[in-house]
Amino acid sequence: MGAPAALVLAILVSMVAIGLLGVLLDWLVIRRFRNAPAMMALVATVALGTVIREMIRTFYPQGSNPKPFPSIASGSFAIGDFVVPTFSLIVIGVSIAMVVALFALLTYTPVGMRIRAVAEDRNIARLMAIRPSRIFAITFFIASAVGAIGAVFFVSHAGVVRFDFGVQLGLIGFSAAVIGGLGSMQGAILGSLLIAGVDVLVQIGVPDGASYRLVFMFVLTILVLVLKPSGLLGKPVFEKV
Amino acid sequence: MSHTGIETDVPAVRQGGATNAAIVTAVEIGGAALLGAFLLSDKTVIIVALLAVMGAIFAVLQLRPRVEERIVAAFRDQRRLSMALGAVIVLTYPFFMNGSSYVLHLLIVAQLYAVLALALNFQLGSANIPNFATGASYGIGAYTSALLAINFGISFWWTLPASAVVATVFGFLLGFPSMRTKDSYLALVTIAFAIVVHQLLNNFAWTGGANGLVGIPAPTLFGHSFAQPIVIFGWRLPSQANFYYLAAALVCLSIVAAKRLHESRVGLAWNALRADPLAARCQGIDIVRYKMLAFGVDAFLAAFAGTIYAFYVSYISPDNFTFLVSVTIMTMVIVGGMDNTLGVIIGAFLLTMLPEKLRIFSDYRLLFVGVIVILFLILRPQGLFPQRARNYGAHP
Description:
The complex is a heterodimer. By secondary structure, chain A is mainly α. Chain A is 71% helix and 5% strand. In chain A, strands 1-4 form a two-stranded antiparallel sheet. Chain A is globular and about 60 Å long. The termini of chain A are far apart. Chain B has 15 helices and six strands. Chain B has a two-stranded antiparallel ribbon with strand order 1-6. Chain B is globular, with a radius of gyration of 21 Å. The interface between A and B is large, with 41 and 43 residues.
């Protein structure tokens, strides 16, 4: 017991809390835009982001200042000649575990089948006695909880947390999902690996790369979408009259 | 008048001309007075009371559509009077502002945002193309003219068209991917473009990096420097009044452009695109061309606004042109009412002035603005003034 157990507990609490927050935001705001044009939902969620950031900034003690965040793991392993930080191993391990768990959830469980049914056709799903509102609540819980883990890893790596660190991360995550192809889990993974790979390569290989990393990442995004308009693994949409 | 070959002027219903004139006069002077009182008040109670009055007016319009119809009919009947009175109000407005340079500053910024919102409206409102890069075009315009003025000493009046041309070229470049992508994918392309432009401005040495550009000279017109106050018949207006009139002229130009485009084949093609791109293509509308055109028009107008902004504040930095600026512009269009010129302008004024006037709530003001925007989107998703059906005179 001690610090590690407390950290694990903190992560679990944040996952549940953020998952419930996601459900609440869906219920309060986002569900009202399900039948509206996509732009409305996008603008509403951006405004929602502003509201949450401002709430942290004003209601958290000293909210506008960066806060130190403890490292969730220190030390390193030696594997042959390589020295790998424990933190990296944990991140990789947990990420793989989460991907496998999400894949299994979507593919093999009744809940996953219902989620896919609602994604395919909400009205027909309703005819099959699936309640879309509950399915949306579940997906918002899962998505927010997974996001919370990602956030904990990110700020633990950075060592500090700020109320507005999510703006850029959110855009990068959105880009990864879109260039992979919305609606495809393999696509999201491929997209994020591609973007992260470009990020790291630019920072190592290009002079002054750290300043230009966003330029490279988003130029890549534009190029992918010009060449593959519905993402790398997204299904091409055929229009019917 | 119209390029569609269809008569758009309503055969005037001549009865009640005097009533219509009275309605037009009351609405315009009342609106101007309300805005003026809101701008000049600095007491919390008064600001909140004025906001309540505005809310009540919008509630009446929401609950009693016939009131809105009546006002619209009156304006249609008394078009000459409404335009003449509007021009007089705009021209004399600075004289009623007690010489306050802060109020004039707010009015200038609001007008520039109105131009940006009108520019975006060509895409988002008329053609349903999501564009999160209007802020980037605004920035490209501002930087082009500032660089030309600082490095080559080119006068404001020449940088205006030059920056518009440069921004339009970039607009077409951005429009290029729009030939293939759409919806969320197209939105992301424009977001990515906005971020790339911001990051490049932030990093290049020749754009001044994060520090931006300083010392943009004030424009001059017939020997009158825009840094000087205006003195007419013993009345003295602060130097901001120069830019107020400049921005007002640009808003006028944008309104005329919006009206002419709306009534032309281009506007019809854009509306067809909004209704259904595939059906529009089947009608023989070259959708790629009209999409590109929408990007070009947006960038062109945004660059004008950017140039005026750069010369007005004489200092620009990349942080004036972030992705969030584009989101703000988009919020103005959606809150005001898509494809409704008046609505878009009111949306821009409201969203520029609200955060400023809510300064009394200091730390909470952005929170308030966010909540208000969300409430607006939920309660009145069609915007303050929804788009109106095209009227060809059959049912005046």
